[in-house]
């Protein structure tokens, strides 16, 4: 029988990142199991984007390893698709000279799938428009469609709710909840994280300070301390 790769999702093993004298991530271990949504939260400067960048291959860890379905993952930004990983970046990042549909075709050059991804993200009616003419929330939907069109096993989202209104965040939450792939969600917006995540990792000054279900995190003292400390 052919060997089936174990589908145990993405794992970060004891990842540390140092920028000169600054430790941005300090011994972070995390697993994103297949089909689950795992959130990473923490105050400003906690290391959330650094963690996201490590998984995307923008930042190489100073120490530690990544594995995807049991195999070592040394992510390179242009090779993510090959490993079944897609991402959206903080902000939007669409190509201004391309139409909405053409932007999604960058993610996967199959027209039917691009149309279906736009439909799924509620942006199909804007397919022939240029991004600059569209409201921010619609542009974010297009960016999500571009990530989803390749049917990733793992979707990485950095602050997808940034700049969105309450209603738009609710719709985004429903969309994320309906996804069948694994999701790693880096996000400031607590309500969204609490609603869509199966598990949450809390970082503070690069260190994991709590890890658990939304309910566990909501009542965790270390989490309250991290956020109150940041606000003080
Ligand atoms: N390329 C870099 N070079 C030097 N320091 C960096 C670099 N990227 C991030 N840092 C520092 O690492 C720490 C973690 O930053 P990071 O952007 O990961 O935090 P964050 O949790 O995403 O914060 P925010 O909520 O403000 O987006 C910060 O102190 C930041 O200044
Ligand atoms: Mg950030």
Topology:
Layout lengths: L9 E10 L2 E11 L4 E5 L6 H9 L6 E6 L2 E2 L12 E4 L11 H8 L3 H10 L15 H13 L5 E5 L7 H12 L4 E5 L3 H7 L2 E6 L2 E6 L1 H5 L2 H11 L1
Parallel strand pairs: 3-8, 3-9, 6-7, 7-8
Antiparallel strand pairs: 1-2, 1-4, 4-5, 9-10
Helix pairs in contact: 2-3, 2-4, 3-4
Pfam families: ABC_tran, BCA_ABC_TP_C
Keywords: ATP-binding, Nucleotide-binding, Transport
GO molecular function, one term: ATP hydrolysis activity
Question: What does this molecule look like?
Answer:
- With 232 residues, the protein is of the alpha/beta class.
- The protein has two domains: 1-82 and 154-232, Rossmann fold, CATH 3.40.50; 85-151.
- It has eight helices and ten strands.
- The chain has helices at 48-56, 100-107, 111-120, 136-148, 166-177, 190-196, 214-218, 221-231; strands at 10-19, 22-32, 37-41, 63-68, 71-72, 85-88, 154-158, 182-186, 199-204, 207-212.
- The strands form two sheets. A six-stranded mixed β-sheet has the order 6-7-8-3-9-10, with helices on both faces. Strands 2-1-4-5 form a four-stranded antiparallel β-sheet, with helices on one face.
- A hairpin with a 2-residue loop joins strand 9 (199-204) and strand 10 (207-212).
- The relative contact order is 0.18.
- It binds adenosine-5'-triphosphate and magnesium ion (MG).
- Magnesium ion (MG) binds at residues 48-49.
